[in-house]
Amino acid sequence: MPRAACARRDAGADRQSMTDSSLLRRMADFDLTDTQRQVRAAVREFAEREILPTVEQHEREGRYPREVIARLAPLGYLAPLIPETYGGSFVDVVTYGVILRGASPGGLGGR
Which of 47, 56, 64 is nearest to 108 (CA)? Predict the structure, then answer.
């Protein structure tokens, strides 16, 4: 068999073994973890209680509600990608996306 054909056959076998690996199956798991679900519920509750009731007023006034945003810090939602040693809460990027989506008024509709 020509050398190039052997290389293609071996590459195909390598690809097949990669697609069968447990690593690839875990990488393709798009379900949220229990912790991420808890964060999603807590962020939604905060947004429904603190953000949603006044969002239209703030939009009309063109005002950034610093007092509402400041209440995110003690919950660990204000600086989620900053390491804890620097005052952040450092979460993974999926949890970060969950926080952003849940805290945005548009994200409240995606239950």
Answer: 47
